[in-house]
Known about the structure:
By secondary structure, the protein is of the alpha/beta class.
Amino acid sequence: MKTKAGIYVHIPFCKQACSYCDFHFSTSLKTAEAVTEAILREIQQQPYFEGNPGIQSLYFGGGTPSILPMRQLGPIVNALEKKFGFADLREFTLEANPDDISGANLSLWRSLGVNRFSIGVQSFFERDLRYMNRSHSAGEAADCIKRAQDTGFSNLSIDLIYGTPGLSDTEWLQNLEYAAALQVPHLSTYALTVEENTPLWAHIRKGRQAEPREESYERQFAILQNFLDSRGYEAYEISNSALPGHRALHNSAYWYGLPYYGFGPSAHGFDGGRTRYSNIAHNVKYARFGSLDEIRSSEDLTETEQMNEFILTRLRLLEGFRIAEFRERFGPEHTETLLQKITTPAGEWFIHDVGSVRLDKPYRILADGISARLFF
Ligand code: SF4
């Protein structure tokens, strides 16, 4: 079967800066027109990956893509279709903030071909939203989900954050129960982490905001796992869960090492082999580029890096990885070494079925740390 590819477009603008966020974005829309023009140039100049794989998923992330008007979003989608063709396109996700999801916008986005939304809800408690400096209210979060569903969009994902200082275990469960009651089929759930140089980091250092409750992470992760099991959600990746048939195609492609093109400031791309590229995370410099080499840096992953990345991504997945796939890619010697590391001394972390390895449930929250211990 011919490999398929994804496309990621980074829209680096937001209405308001969420205090915990370390993604690349600007709250000034002054460069929006110029950045849009530059994305169009970038699409035009992009060489096809080997074999020109068909595009199966399109993902507009950011930043906040829902902030862009149709006169800017529309030409980007058209340029992508003209360049790559959408005959194989199955999933078109737009990240949207609740306060942008109006009836009028939903119709416009439908006309563009959007068939899935990833909505940055984060919490249904007003106190948490204020702590995170989100631009929307708890009421808007619930209303926008119903509005999208009433307009026929059933393929929705919402982001929810746990570990905020005020969030009790009962409230965390209430957030999850509410999402299930709203029939949201896909949940992306994250522990609140304080990244350096974010406003939250600065406020905590100055004593203006309370620190996230790290001691609650493990407990609230366990509450999450029990909730997912009881409601029929599959925790198919450590931070992503879905009702049957609603796994995210685009994100799954990242974890399985499939190729994806990335456009826009700070976007990354991967050719599905060993070459990765990343774009400059600076709107003004990006907007002025003439040729791709002015904004891109590429790296060829070494075999060691490829093996480590394989371990890191696959151990985050419910299914883990097939030993035969590792062997086919990296040879019998490395496979033997990996299996030895898995068996001793940390065998209890893993479920080592015939032919595959995955993390046992209680250890999934530690997936990244455990992977690091298996690195070559
Ligand atoms: S809306 Fe998203 S990208 Fe923008 S500041 Fe908030 S978390 Fe960051």
